[in-house]
Design a protein that fits this description.
Elements (H helix, E strand, L loop, with lengths): L10 H14 L3 H16 L5 H12 L5 H44 L3 H29 L3 H15 L5 H14 L19 H24 L4 H14 L5 H15 L5 H12 L8 H12 L6 H27 L3 H4 L3 H30 L10 H15 L5 H18 L3
Helix pairs in contact: 1-4, 2-4, 3-4, 4-12, 4-13, 5-11, 5-15, 5-16, 5-17, 6-15, 7-15, 8-9, 8-13, 9-12, 9-13, 10-15, 11-12, 12-13, 16-17
């Protein structure tokens, strides 16, 4: 069992907290991690600094949304697997429901002037957010000439050579391992072992939970249907989602828009804008992309039913691996976070992620600032909104939800003034 925390809450008390957290966890991964630290370590004293730091380092090693994984781990630390399940589901549940509603509104009413205007402002704000993330991750991850070279190579590979995203991540990790061959062996750390057989049970349950939706869709709609292919594709994306939603969105957009033609670039950018307005992990944007893929290509189903099914399959494939990774690795956190070679591989992947996010920034700039292409010139109102949003966030330290609200209002004003 995990070591006793500083102050052990009852399961009911912790469950209420995790559900509440799902409604207030705005601000992206950095803001969500800060909320978790403030509430769990500083205010409630459920865990100490050492446990929290070890958990965060472990989650950074994994693909997937680190804030969600951190919440799952903290819940596991307090109350075992049932605690991790409640923490994780409480963290993502409100976002899933809210984004389903927003997705339907966008698909049904996206051409209405009010919706168009608000989205114009939100898309411009998202451009500012991506550029802000690019600078911050670049400062954190580009410390050596090798890391800079990896970032440039990742950008070129994805933008010009159409190299699949998983290969870029894998190659960067191998480069990191290869350059860390002189790293010292990790010190021996006493780790509380998992109960005999529990890793096998967790893995078996995870595989079964992953297979059930795939089999159900394959039997009812066909193994080559949109929904079967979508489920497999989003599973693949979940397993290589290092660097957060901005990194994976560049890959997803390239593949879903250019290769598969399931959604448009404009829909992808709109999805990121809507996901920024919801609590929970930003990678929930993949649910929107699944929704729009089903809406655009409903096949034998009604558009709403096709979209809902595709959205739920996308969410299941995206978030299930996070629970499985945490439940498998949680008993070994102390050992894993002290392996220098793993740290070197992660640093190389982070460097490559900088280049991947740069491709997303370029895509957003084309969609938001050059909606009519180079011949149509720059769209100045969105550019101004993006600059002001960046200034509010970076210089004035505005809360994200207030900056997004102002951007949405500015876009609405631009729409009704006839400047769009």
């Amino acid at each position: 069992m995990p070591p006793s925390p500083v102050s052990n809450p009852s399961f009911a008390v912790a469950a209420r907290f995790w559900l509440k957290l799902g409604f207030v966890s705005f601000g992206g991964p950095a803001g969500q991690i800060a909320i978790l630290h403030r509430e769990v370590v500083e205010r409630r004293r459920w865990l100490d600094e050492r446990d929290f730091a070890g958990a965060l380092n472990f989650c950074m090693l994994l693909p997937g949304p680190e804030a969600l994984q951190l919440a799952i781990y903290l819940g596991w630390k307090l109350h075992g697997i049932r605690g991790g399940l409640v923490a994780g589901l409480g963290f993502i549940g409100p976002a899933i429901v809210l984004l389903l509603g927003l997705s339907w509104l966008y698909a049904s009413l996206g051409s209405q002037p009010v919706v168009t205007g608000v989205l114009l402002g939100l898309k411009a704000a998202v451009l500012a957010l991506v550029l802000q993330a690019l600078v911050r991750i670049g400062r954190r991850g580009l410390h050596t000439p090798l890391h800079v070279a990896l970032a440039v190579a990742a950008f070129a590979a994805l933008e010009f050579l159409a190299v699949p995203f998983p290969w870029i991540v894998l190659s960067a990790g191998l480069v990191g391992l290869a350059t860390a061959w002189r790293a010292p062996r990790p010190e021996h750390v006493a780790v509380t072992p998992a109960r005999p057989g529990s890793p096998l049970r967790v893995a078996a349950a995870g595989i079964a939970l992953w297979l059930l939706p795939l089999l159900a869709v394959a039997v009812t709609l066909g193994p080559d249907s949109l929904w079967s292919r979508l489920y497999l594709f989003f599973t693949q994306a979940a397993l290589v989602t290092f660097g957060g939603a901005y990194a994976v969105l560049g890959y997803m957009t390239q593949h879903l828009v250019q290769d598969l033609a399931w959604i448009t670039a404009e829909q992808s950018v709109a999805g990121l804008a809507l996901a920024e307005t919801t609590p929970g992990p930003l990678v929930i944007v993949l649910q929107f992309m699944g929704f729009m893929a089903g809406w655009n290509q409903p096949g034998p189903l009604e558009p709403v039913a096709a979209a809902l099914l595709a959205a739920l399959l996308a969410s299941w494939a995206t978030f299930l691996p996070s629970f499985v990774f945490i439940f498998l690795g949680a008993p070994h956190v102390e050992r894993l976070t002290r392996v220098p070679r793993i740290a070197a591989a992660l640093a190389a992947i982070t460097a490559a992620v900088v280049g991947i996010i740069a491709t997303l920034g370029l895509l957003l700039a084309r969609v938001v600032l050059l909606p009519q292409g180079l011949a149509g010139g720059i769209a100045w109102p969105p550019l101004v909104i993006a600059i002001v949003t960046w200034w509010l966030l970076e210089r004035r330290r505005f809360d994200l939800h207030w900056a997004l609200a102002l951007a949405g209002l500015a876009g609405l004003a631009v729409q009704y003034a006839g400047w769009a």
